[in-house]
Amino acid sequence: MHPALEFSHVTRHWRAGILGSAAGSIALDDCSLAVAPGEIVIVTGGAGAGKSTLLLLASGRTPASAGTIRWNGSASPDEARPQLIGARPWEYNFLTVRQALAFHADQLALADASLPAPARFVPLMATVGLRGLSRVRLGQLGALDRLRVVVAQALLASPRLLCCEEPFAFCGPDERLAATSLMRSIAGRGTAVIIATREAAALGALGLGDRTLRLERGRIAAGASATRSVLELAVPSPDDAMTRLSKRLPSLARRGRRLRVPLTGQTPEAILALCRDAGVRVRGSRVAEEALPGAAASP
């Protein structure tokens, strides 16, 4: 059986001016990997590590500058019909769930006229957990159901590879459990799943990934230090914030005038909401990576 996706010494170079860059850059550098059918691979790394570029290449949205990519043994992505998704659909909030699926089917039909007829949307909605929501507008859905819509749109193409960029970004802890189950059910049908995220530790705590790859400056790191994602908070009074939050966030730590909270089973949105409830004003926040306590540094 061929891998669902195979990179062989793949490099992708972005020329100057692309994505607002002032100079050319190498987003992926000599990357080789293979993803088996039904496997869930988590790809992590900091900002600019190459995660988004890897997904663009894996989904066939952009070609490699060097090296070869094969989908199910073919040099054409048409063999695997890879789909690239985010956390929620395009902001067509006025569309109902049924209309959003029909619209997406029309877009896919530009390349393939043999997609499911609208009458088959109802079974698909049941498959992803949208039963009974066909007439609900996208703007009325919560984060989990919006993700379900995105997944349903992707499944219209019967993909053998699903490429996901921060798919759980807007989901709370309970929603993430349901989203994890959804991804597992997709993989259980033989579809390979790649999830690019900065929150590998949080997803790993949910038991989602079969393995994790870390990108560093466009390369797949070998023997990199174990890291975790943390939410870094800038607050007016760190001492007062520590007092208000320490019982609610036992893992809260202070570094200088900033606070750090590990993103293990929690989302940044949930932590910020907790800060608001505790009366802590947050001036700014960002997701960062730090070495796990006790982890040995790479040579």
Within the CATH hierarchy, at the fold level, what is the topology of the largest domain? Answer: Rossmann fold
CATH homologous group name of the largest domain: P-loop containing nucleotide triphosphate hydrolases
Mean pLDDT: 85
Please give the CATH class of the largest domain. Alpha Beta
Main sheet properties = 6 strands, mixed
Number of strands: 13
Tell me what the structure shows.
This protein has 299 residues and is α/β, with parallel strands linked by helices. It has 2 domains: 5-220, Rossmann fold; 227-291, Alpha-Beta Plaits (2-Layer Sandwich). The protein is 27% helix and 25% strand. It has 8 helices and 13 strands. It has a 6-stranded mixed β-sheet with strand order 5-6-7-3-8-9, with helices on both faces. The chain has a 4-stranded antiparallel β-sheet with strand order 11-12-10-13. Strands 2-1-4 form a 3-stranded antiparallel β-sheet, with helices on one face. β6, α5 and β7 (192-196) form a beta-alpha-beta unit. It is globular and about 60 Å long. It starts with a strand and ends in an 8-residue tail after the last strand.
